[in-house]
Amino acid sequence: MFSTFEPYRIKAVEPIPLTTRDNRQKYLEEVAFNPNRLKANQVTIDFLTDSGSNALSCKQWSAMMQADESYAGADSFYTFESTVKAITGFPFIVPVHQGRAAEKILFKVLLSEAEVAYSNGFFDTTREHILQNKIKAINIDTETESRDFKGNIDCRKLEEMLSKEDQKVGVVVMTITNGERGGLPVSISNIKEASAICRKHNVFFYADACRFAENTWFVKTREKGFMDKTPSQIALEMFNEFDGCIISAKKDGLCNIGGIFATRQREVYEKFSEECILAEGHITYGGLAGRDLEAIAVGLTEALDEHYLQHRIEMVQEFGRMLEFNGATILEPGGHAIFIDAEKALSHIPRNQHPAWALTCALYVEGGIRAYEYGNLKFGYKDENGKEAFLHRELVRLAIPRRVYTMSHLKYVAEVFGKIMQNASNVRGLTIIRFPSFLGLFEIEMKEV
């Protein structure tokens, strides 16, 4: 039973675009059946991503008004730096304009002589940046799953992979929470075991910690020995196991832009800083305005508030139950999104007609809801020889922005899904007209079969 309420009052409101079904059908046809290309004012409920779509607090707005916009050495940088140091324990901190900027620079620095990188689940841009360096990016899925921490890396496999003498491993990346596995958490004990293995083999161990705060709540409520610790204490213990981290402040930074690189390795920091100056700007602003640095400093602190985290996680869990009540088969809910099994929802659509994409289109036409395909189009559906090989489940992700929607919005979405299920046979599959080379989901063009 959902028992918590929003631990805040709403101080400003924004009208939601309301459109007709006929108009939505027309809008979708105009963008070649790609909801990613819709205008925001054509979308009623936007679950495309939880990245950068957060609502800022009054404290964040207040801090932004007091920002120092000096080019170098601004007071706002030192406010940002001290906050990140306190949360992570890392001594060397560099801001960047968003998380993918940090990973692009970091992997250029770390992977110059490497052949392979491993992870519990690479995010799509993380994987692409590794591939751009002509390095293999391999996920190590967990076979002996922890019931409560299904985002874990398989440490037995990790030890086996790092023991191979015929490869040069550049880095092991622990994604927290594990977006590849539906935003499910990683345990502190698993992080510590993986850290020890990496140290044994002298391999860099970095965290992709975009949703680190949500992970601390799962640890507090599920892992033995952490119930009496605060999310901040858990975060510090977690980061202590890594050589460094990259963070998109657009998630658990509760901001609309911004990213973080943090490390305890001076040599890596110095190399990163040199690249940052070329790509992002001076290392005390990293492509951000002083007001962004101030907002991130406040947002990181607010994201570790226990009342906020409890509400955030329970809200997602309850949303999953509402969708199941309306006929959805979902993955176990994580901390930021619900993943719907589109093949079960639209069993009449074959894989080569992309049922997950078809469901995203149906959600938009029926209710103005924008969702994200998390299936074979996102992860690639062709093998090394260019032949069709559907390797991923056909999922649809509903990513929930932080502090933006209330339970009544989520109830509406669940009811729209239920209406789609009542007439599921009317939903049509799609075929590809154009597919760009890199991360093609954003510009792909489709047509109905």
UniProtKB/TrEMBL annotation:
It holds the Pfam family Beta_elim_lyase. Its cofactor is pyridoxal 5'-phosphate. InterPro entries: ArAA_b-elim_lyase/Thr_aldolase, PyrdxlP-dep_Trfase, PyrdxlP-dep_Trfase_major, PyrdxlP-dep_Trfase_small. The keyword Nucleotide-binding does not apply. Keywords: Pyridoxal phosphate. Residues 46-415 form the Aromatic amino acid beta-eliminating lyase/threonine aldolase domain. Signal peptide: none annotated. Belongs to the beta-eliminating lyase family. This is Aromatic amino acid beta-eliminating lyase/threonine aldolase domain-containing protein.
